[in-house]
Amino acid sequence: MAETSQSTTPNPVIEQLEEKDKTSAIAVAGHPLHAMSVHFPIALVFGTLAVDVFYWWTADPFWLRVGLWTAGTAFVAGVAAGIVGTVELLLVPGIRARVASWAHAIAAVTLISVAGANWGLRLLEPDAVLPHGLLLSCLAAVLTGVAGWHGGKLIFDHGIGLMVSPKD
Fold first, then answer.
1. What gap in Å lies between CA 158 and CA 19, rounded to an integer?
2. How far, in Å, CA of 42 to CA of 78, rounded?
3. What letters, b where the CB count within 10 A reaches 16 and e where it falls short, cover 111-133?
4. Rounded-to-integer distance, Cα 64 and Cα 9, Å
């Protein structure tokens, strides 16, 4: 078996990147606000998809009303989380310098746009949930996965937003 060797020479670009501050600029008791606020829109995006499926199966207008509220709340909560995330992106050099941060931001802004379109569709044409609302809900769920994957990569691989004391 051939052994794979890794270069022991450090990469100067990565070293320069790691020197930049990557702690959260907006935190409550050491917990990044963006990381705390994304759970609600994520849950509501998937909740809207579930509600659309329930409406598809039952044709009960109750699910139309629930879908209007879950889609609207997902959009509003997503905008709030997006504002905090954008401030973090712009204020923290260690976040701004990473490609994964920009990929996460683009996926998240696209997701917020789709969530807004989904809510707008329900406001203007409640009966258009099938098929257009369901398709928008599916697209939003996929975009949530993409944005979440990049966000998780930022936290777990790059340590973005972690406020760890020196003794930890």
1. 12
2. 8
3. bbebbbbbbebbeeeeeebeeeb
4. 60
Rounded CA-CA distance 107/153 in Å is 13
Three-point CA angle 35, 85, 46, nearest 5°: 60
Tokens linked to 81 = 């989380």
Token readout for 24 is 């959260």
139 neighbors 107 (Cβ within 8 angstroms): no
Q: Residue 31, SS3?
A: strand
The answer to whether the CB of 22 falls within 8 A of the CB of 92 is yes
pLDDT band per the 50, 70, 90 thresholds, residue 7: low
Can you read off the two tokens belonging to residue 127? 């009966």
Strand partners, 28: 31
Paired with 27 in beta bridges are: 32
Q: What is the per-residue pLDDT for 164?
A: 60
State pTM to two decimals. 0.86
The secondary element (H helix, E strand) that includes residue 68 is: helix 61-91
